[in-house]
């Protein structure tokens, strides 16, 4: 049986980005304060003011290539839903499946 190498959870998101391209409905606003919402650049907010603007299913703040190298253009002020998606959780696994990426197994 082949043994897999441990995954570095501290940097796995920067080589993935699947959650940011999973669905135009995912990067939604929920419990952010007015001050937190004001910190997000207006050009990146959707027309309904309910979440992040997306190009197809991809969040407009996502930079780079999904599954290779990505970064969030507004990481410090990203919405709560983005903060709560964690490497290896159910949402992460669902998003990674969409892009044909292997599941992350936390040690």
Could you explain the architecture of this structure?
With 107 residues, this protein is an alpha+beta fold. Strands 1-2 form a two-stranded antiparallel sheet. A two-stranded antiparallel ribbon has the order 3-4. It starts with 33 loop residues before the first helix and ends in a 9-residue tail after the last helix. The model has no long low-confidence stretch (mean pLDDT 90). 19% of the residues lie in helices and 11% in strands.
Output the keywords.
single chain, 107 residues, alpha+beta, two-stranded antiparallel ribbon, 3 helices, 4 strands, 11% strand, globular
- Care to count the β-strands? 4
**Percentage of residues assigned to helices:** 10-25%
| Biggest sheet details | 2 strands, antiparallel
> Low-confidence parts, pLDDT < 50 over ≥5 residues?
none
Strand content: 5-15%
Shape: globular
- Tally of contiguous helical segments: 3
Strand order of the largest sheet: 1-2
Radius of gyration: 14 Å
What is the residue-mean pLDDT, rounded to a whole number? 90
Structural class: alpha+beta
Instruction: Give the N-to-C terminal Cα separation.
Output: 18 Å
Please provide the ordered H/E string of secondary-structure elements: HEEEEHH
């Amino acid at each position: 049986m082949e043994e897999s190498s441990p995954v570095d959870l501290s940097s796995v998101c920067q080589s993935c980005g699947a959650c940011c391209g999973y669905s135009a409905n995912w990067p939604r606003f929920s419990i952010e304060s007015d001050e937190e919402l004001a910190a997000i650049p207006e050009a990146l907010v959707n027309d309904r003011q309910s979440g992040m603007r997306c190009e197809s299913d991809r969040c407009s703040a996502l930079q780079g290539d999904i599954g290779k190298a990505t970064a969030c253009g507004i990481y410090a002020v990203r919405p709560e839903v983005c903060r709560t998606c964690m490497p290896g959780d159910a949402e992460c696994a669902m998003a990674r499946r969409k892009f044909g990426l292997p599941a992350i197994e936390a040690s």
